């Protein structure tokens, strides 16, 4: 594996991860790019005890370009990536969080305003525009994991960063703006609400570690979708989405950098199998969100257990689940598919 750090025309960092040691990344980004936008502002919601990032520049993002205009396909005039690559990571041109801090005024009320420092990166899983994560080779998935591990370690060390989140949004139904296979990484300047809630539950839990106890119970139960020596994929008992799968390493580690090389190598074969089963359910490409839950940099880090949460909003061949009144306004989920039935359908898929 070879790592090469370069910079784009506007100063953003671009990092190549290559399988071959002789990869050549001497090509230079010669575009005339506008100055980088300022970091969004963070506004505190005192009722929810949560931060909201307000990013006004993101309305002008590139929307669903064709392959010859795709900014993630390498080595053409409009590309973000000047030379061919195996995996490439670069700073998002339209970031929600960045260290490029502008002026921020207080807005009154009980809402404190502070700059949204942090970093947002784009991870290109392959240079093949028409591929998908499920079609990556095991070797390519391992390289993506190397990139996630590298970025998690590096971003966690930045001043003010409290949590690093690697994720993939896939499908127009989820709202992706670029069809090229890619994911994103957010380095947040706070602990996200869901992570805080899970870790607080783990702190209240009696017995062993909460996540490890859940995993041990699920491994014996009816909702397992697949497993191998190091990982198990299961539909959680209280799944919120019609098709939701959690993938856990058997050994409790805080984050991707803490995985052994054997654990990293055995993730791809199981995960891509689960993704293909998801696509096989209705014979149509499934929109999904794949979210790595990693330990925050400091908050209750010792209680965390790395896992991947994969879920789709498609509940039938031509029906999507929308987060409507109960879910959006109350945070109270209603799921139309029995989790045991979803697990059975996924096991029998393909
Ligand atoms: Zn592309």
Automatic annotation (TrEMBL):
**Which GO molecular function entries does the Swiss-Prot or TrEMBL record give?**
nucleotidyltransferase activity
Among Pfam families, the record links this protein to:
GalP_UDP_tr_C, GalP_UDP_transf
Q: Where is the Galactose-1-phosphate uridyl transferase C-terminal domain?
A: 205-348
**What reaction gets catalysed by this protein?**
alpha-D-galactose 1-phosphate + UDP-alpha-D-glucose = alpha-D-glucose 1-phosphate + UDP-alpha-D-galactose
The organism's place on the tree of life at top rank: Bacteria
Task: Report the EC number(s), separated by commas if there are several.
Answer: 2.7.7.12
Cofactor(s) recorded in Swiss-Prot or TrEMBL: Zn(2+)
Domain Galactose-1-phosphate uridyl transferase N-terminal, first and last residues per copy = 38-191
UniProt keyword Transferase present: yes
Q: Which UniProt keywords apply?
A: Carbohydrate metabolism, Galactose metabolism, Metal-binding, Nucleotidyltransferase, Transferase, Zinc
Query: To which pathway does this protein belong?
Result: Carbohydrate metabolism; galactose metabolism
Entry similarity comment:
Belongs to the galactose-1-phosphate uridylyltransferase type 1 family.
Could you identify this protein by its name?
Galactose-1-phosphate uridylyltransferase
